[in-house]
Every structure is written in C-alpha cells, then in structure tokens.
Design brief:
Shape: globular
Structural class: alpha/beta
Order of helices and strands: HHHEHEHEHEHEHEHEHEEHEEHEEHH
CATH architecture of the largest domain: 3-Layer(aba) Sandwich
CATH class of the largest domain: Alpha Beta
Distance between the termini: 76 Å
Strand order of the largest sheet: 1-7-6-5-4-2-3
Helix content: 40-55%
Number of strands: 13
Strand content: 5-15%
Largest sheet: 7 strands, mixed
CATH superfamily of the largest domain: Type I PLP-dependent aspartate aminotransferase-like (Major domain)
Number of helices: 14
Radius of gyration: 23 Å
Length: 394
C-alpha cells in the first residue's frame, strides 16, 4: 500500500516548448553559477543523498522543541543543528534556544523582536555599515534607533558609540554588532561593546550579533574574534546557505532561553507553542544543515574555512600583481577592489557600492575562476594600469 502511494503516477507533463524553456533556464543557471564571485553563497555542496526527501512537504510549524500534532517534520534534526551551533557559539549550557530560519534577515528580526519585548523603551544602536535588513526590521518593529559611524574598513566607531549611548543613559540600550559587514566583511567587537556599556553603568542592555556572513567560520579561526555568548552576546544570527551552503536560503538564530520564555503562546490548532517569526517553517532546511554538519563536522568546516582564506589571500595578491587596488580585513574572505567596468561587474556579478566592488572567495570558488577574472581586469587596463573607473575620470 505504501509502495503504491509513494510511486503513484504523475499527472500531466511539460509540452515541448516548456521543456525547451526549462532546459535553457538550467543551462543559464549553470553558466551564472560559475561566474558569480560577488555574492556570499557556497556552491560546492552535494545533497544528492537527500533528494528523495523532496517528494514530501516537511513543515516544522511552531516551536522546534515541542511536540506537535503535525508529524511530517524534521524537529529532532533541527534540535541537533541548534545544539551544534550552541556549542560552537559557547552558549550557556542550560540556557539557550533557537530555530532554523529562512535566512539572516529573519534571524536579525527575531533578535530585535526579543530585545523589544524585554526592553520596550530601548534605543537601538547600529553602525552605518550594517546590513540593509536592520533598518527594515527596526521599521517593522517600530523601534527607535541611532546610526553609529563606521571606520573606513567598516568596523563600528566605538568612540562614537560611547558618546552617543552616554546621551541616552536613562534608556535601555540594544546594540547590533556586525560580524561580517556586507561590503568589507568587517567585524564589530562584542567584548569592547560590552565594556563600553559597563563603563557607562548601563545595566539594561541587549547585544545581538549579526553573523550572517562570517559568524560560522569566525568561531573556527584562531585568533577567535569576540562575538559570541561568552563575549557578551544575547543572541546570534547566521546564514546557512553562505558558508555551509544550501540550494535555498536558510539560517539559524540562537538566543538565551530565559529571554525567549517571556514570549510565545499555545496554539491548539498545531498543538505546540508559537514562538518563531513565521508559522509554517521549511523542514528541509534543518535536514540539509544536519546532513552537512554530520558529513563535515568541525574539522571539515575548519579546513573549509582555511581553504577559502587561502584563496582570498591568493586573489588579493594576484590583483596587486597587475596593479589593481585590492585589500581585505583580517580573516576575511571578501576582497575589496576598485570598481571595474560595468561589463566586468555584470559578467562576474560583482557586488558594487560607490567606487568599490568586492569578490567573495566562498567555498566552491576555484583558483581558475579568479585567474579568469584577473585576466579580464588586465585586459581593461591601459598601459599605466589604471582601473576603468579612473580612466573614465581622465
């Protein structure tokens, strides 16, 4: 009976025109996948062993730590994923909670939502280099905020933070720390932020680490950048599709359980607590992340990080060899370069802001791709070696 159910015939089929369109689209995806060097997405994953699960709708509706009347889910695997990241981010042993999200934006929204519920009158502080989702999330939550200056490399200006927070010492402070900014992959220092708050005798505060890009591998590197729970964070959000890699966006948010327990309500319809941002949640995300964690483990992730860092160093060196301005922050996979021609930006899908673009050497990027990009840049230089944007100004 089960066999007949699983192998029931599929109704309908694509006509010849639609099938051709699908084939052309897939060819386009393969080509664009090769030349995407400006956005943080790992592309060396292999989840073929999990393809059979795509025949089923896995819905992790509600709280991942509670039972539900909906039994087609991956909650147990989701819990293991959260346990892995809780240990990685040095969360309090008996005081953490989290779930697998749709991506970093949802993780940031949850951290800010929890902060608002704890401190309704708080002032939020975030740097000018923060991800665009922060301003959007603050608008959705109707939270008052102040933007703090960032230095030329993208890290928060701590003197500006201290001076600004001191003006609002009568209000709780919510600080958003960037652990890998969008353009330069700068990391804010949570330990320094906590010292500033303590020095101002501010007792009611909440620190959220946005580690969407660099959070996972920052915890694997030596020296270890201060950003996790032991350093002073109250919540951390990371993306799963960036460093680990996934065919769809996903992420993880971790918070202190004692804070989370102040929110949430029982929903009889699903038989569990409603404690997440969304109702229905993708059950395949936890399954894929669990598979990657079990397949690679900490040592595999660490080797993955070091290989990507070696390629970033190679990329920076090759660009400087041809006279193209290039630099990166410590322990960064992101190489910031002078903006090249629009043609190169389009071909290699380079994220660009103002006069600068960047290359991100995510796992899966090969040296041959970097060499091809460098060759294209070299072709667009004149004899003096000036980038295209400077030639346009002459």
């Amino acid at each position: 009976m089960k066999e007949a159910y699983y192998n029931e015939s599929k109704a309908g089929a694509l006509n010849e025109m639609d099938r051709k369109r699908l084939e052309e689209y897939l060819d386009h995806v393969v080509e664009r996948n090769y030349s995407m060097l400006g956005y943080p997405a790992s592309r060396d994953f292999d989840y073929s062993e999990l393809y059979p699960s795509l025949r089923f709708q896995l819905n992790n509706v509600g709280d991942p730590w509670g039972a539900s009347t909906c039994q087609l889910h991956s909650r147990e695997l989701e819990q293991e994923v959260i346990h892995f990241f809780a240990k990685l981010f040095r969360a309090p042993e008996s005081n953490y909670w989290g779930y697998v999200t749709n991506g970093g934006t949802e993780g940031n929204l949850y951290g800010l939502y929890l902060a608002r519920e704890l401190y309704p009158n708080a002032m939020v502080y975030y740097s000018s280099a923060a991800h665009y989702s922060i301003q959007k999330n603050l608008h959705l939550l109707n939270m008052e905020s102040i933007v703090i200056r960032a230095d030329k490399n993208g890290e928060m200006d701590y003197l500006d933070l201290k001076e600004t927070v001191s003006l609002y010492r009568n209000r709780p402070a919510v600080i958003l720390a960037n652990i890998g900014t969008t353009m330069t992959e700068a990391r804010d220092n949570v330990a320094v932020i906590k010292e500033i708050l303590d020095s101002l005798a501010i007792r009611s505060y909440y620190i959220h680490s946005d580690g969407a890009l660099a959070g996972t591998y920052s915890a694997l590197l030596d020296p270890r950048h201060p950003f996790d729970f032991q350093d002073g964070a109250d919540s951390i959000a990371v993306s799963g599709h960036k460093f680990i890699g996934s065919p769809f966006p996903c992420g993880i948010v971790l918070v202190k359980k004692s804070y989370k327990e102040r929110i949430g309500q029982l929903v009889p319809y699903i038989g569990t607590l409603d404690t997440t941002i969304t109702g229905s949640r993708n059950g395949h995300g936890p399954l894929f992340l669990w598979y990657a964690i079990k397949k690679l483990g900490l040592d595999g992730f660490r080797q993955r990080a070091h290989r990507a860092l070696e390629l970033a160093a190679y990329t920076e060196h090759r660009l400087r060899e041809i006279g193209w301005n290039a630099w990166r922050n410590p322990q960064a996979l992101t190489v910031v370069i002078d903006k090249p021609s629009d043609e190169i930006i389009r071909k290699w899908q380079l994220a660009t802001q103002g006069d600068f673009s960047h290359i991100i050497c995510m796992p899966g990027v090969q040296q041959a791709q970097i060499d091809a990009l460098v060759a294209d840049l070299e072709k667009h230089q004149n004899k003096s070696g000036l980038p295209a944007r400077l030639l346009q100004k002459q």
